[in-house]
Amino acid sequence: MSIVLKGLSKTFGQFPAVKKVELEIPTGDFVALLGPSGSGKTTLLRLIAGLEGPNSGEILFNGEDFTAKSVKERKVGFVFQHYALFKHMTIFDNIAFGLKVRPRKHRPSKEAINSKVEELLKLVQLEGLGERYPSQLSGGQRQRVALARALAVEPEVLLLDEPFGALDAKVRQELRGWLRELHQKLNITTVFVTHDQEEAMEMADTVVVMNNGRIEQTGSPENVYENPVTPFVYSFLGRVNEFRGNSLENYTPYGVDKPFSDKEVGYIRPHEIGLSRTFVNNSYPAEVSHVNKVGAAVRIELRRLDTDDLFEAELSAEKYNIMGGLKRGDQLFAEFQNLVIFNGNTLRNSEFELPPSNLVLRPEEVRS
Amino acid sequence: MKSELVSRQKKQSTASITKWVLIGSALSFLGIFILVPLIAVFTEALKKGVELYFLALTEPEALSAIKLTMITAAIAVPLNTLFGLIAAWAITKFEFKGKNMLITLIDIPFAVSPVIAGLVFVLLFGAQGVFGPLLAAYNIKIIFAVPGIVIATIFITFPFVVRELIPIMQEQGSEEELAALTLGASGWQMFRKVTLPNIKWGVLYGVILCNARAMGEFGAVSVVSGHIRGLTNTLPLHVEILYNEYNFTAAFACASLLAILALFTLFLKTIVEKAGG
Ligand SMILES: Nc1ncnc2c1ncn2[C@@H]1O[C@H](COP(=O)(O)OP(=O)(O)O)[C@@H](O)[C@H]1O
Ligand SMILES: [Mg+2]
Known about the structure:
A: 2 domains, six-stranded mixed sheet, elongated, B: 14 helices, binds adenosine-5'-diphosphate, binds magnesium ion, ATP-binding (chain A), ABC transporter domain-containing protein (chain A), ATP binding (chain A), cell membrane (chain A), AAA+_ATPase (chain A)
């Protein structure tokens, strides 16, 4: 089922939690609503499910206006952040609930319900645990029961609120892969909420970045990571160096016709900073202040010798070894070719005249 | 080293003295104010033999008082259970203006002296009351009649079930209910299959306390009853009449019934507390 949100807004008292949201989700898409806590993700998800009513705007399912339809009529599967399992029912009864409450003429037979529940228990890898109560399961198992319960009614949309938020890192990692596979198998339009950019990037086909009740950017994980359209998206998705105001002049290789104001901020990701031991065009001297070699990438903290700005660069282990290892106090030359400058929320780079690329010497051997 | 040990021993012995003093005073307080009177009720009741005891309980006026007490409770308790469920639901699941006001109002029967409560009903429904002429026109009698007793009892016992349910329902939130709705349950199915099982022990607890008070209420009922023997006397009122007539054995025999009710209530309450975890 496809979902379209048109100018959707929700206000709690005086507080606008969701502001004029426009979003199109095609059938079968796997969407992450990504944003910091309080950015309105849960509220947006609840609006889609019908658990909240919007103050204005429309919600279309398969092109049909569903804005005024009740929760029951929407037939969405909803997995709550804290699972909301029925404490007093066994796992079996939890999963069977949606089938048992159907009006008699649509209710499957007892045998049909039994086999459906068994099938779902198998799908979520909890065979044999049907007689237990929710309190007798681990967090990860409860999460899977919540999912099986939602899937039992065969929804055409699956909505999950921070599905792995309350789990420890290892279980979370397992469940991510598992949910991804499940989506490939069932191909239900799925929207999940997360505040963890890594989770969104790893799992989703489409990432919707939210901030302050607004959608900042929508796109594939690669797209939002490589081409953030606002400073917020830049800083929220992955590590980034920020340079502000007047000192920005020292970073652009293009020469600037007008000076930078305080509102202008330059962003560059650590892996986009070029490092070399010798001077190349448009590079600046910097001193290594710390080296962190955990994992496949090496993080290097540096201080620019001319401006005293601190920044972080990242090299692959391989490149790092080619450079012959680094230690505190080493002097290098850093290059900020990919710096992206925003004035407020507007991109300013286009105002610069870019030099012909063949004139720029890139220290290729050390770029990661 | 040694002196430290001694001082520690000293401290410990002071602590244990404090402990025993506290426990001792709590127990003697309980003994003097609860246990001794309880024993006194039963010894007085049985002083002139078991035969007289049962005679006092089975004479027509006593039986009619017992019957009226039961009828009153049988009306007040279910109604207050229903009101309690509705009010607790409204307060915990919805946001609305005047919610704090409503929570305060619920406590009024606890805050107001029962005698005042009774007087208010006399002022409303009595012959000289606000609705007096209207009721007289339709020949409906509320004050000095059974309806008045029932109304006063409902008023006095209203808070028990609500008060019990509000914290339980607040703590549980409404996520399970919302989950039921997303799974296609109707409002009634949601209530019966999700809400009620989660609050059933709280409801039962509230009902037990509500019942104990409904059967034992004296002040408010005394004002509206009119003390008509065999007609508008509840058990507590009957005890008072017998006592005022120096019929001590019969008075204590009837009082012992109320004491048994209290003990039974405590017993049930303990069981429900255990079962509800
Ligand atoms: N029922 C509510 N009443 C009042 N404010 C609310 C309610 N639900 C959410 N909010 C507010 O709306 C904002 C967005 O909340 P939410 O959608 O839960 O954010 P997120 O899920 O992104 O953390 C928050 O500031 C929150 O305090
Ligand atoms: Mg949330």
